[in-house]
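lol so apparently i was supposed to do this last week
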Amino acid sequence: MPKPDKHVFVCTQHRAPGHPRGSCGTKGCTDVMTEFMNEIQKRNLFETIGLTNTGCLGPCMLGASVLVYPDGIMYGEVKKEQVKTIVEKHLLGGEPVKELQVPTEVW
Ligand code: FES
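anyway here it is w/ FE2/S2 (inorganic) cluster bound
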């Protein structure tokens, strides 16, 4: 596998109901992960975009959390409907989607 241009990490951490930190598992992370897979497949980006589901990335209250390297950009409260925008603007266009980034005090 060639080294990807961008690598997307989607938090798919689940925690028990009532846990004080909550989790991306209750905030649509599975749908977000599926939508990234669909976009990558639809556009045949397998050799340029890496996609990995991961455990907790930190800002649980702002899930679903998505982290993009090598840029080190953290997106928060990501919904599946916003995945296409991240793919087109950031992963393909090279411009992070500022309105979806978590606040600088978080990341
Ligand atoms: S559970 Fe997703 S960032 Fe912590």
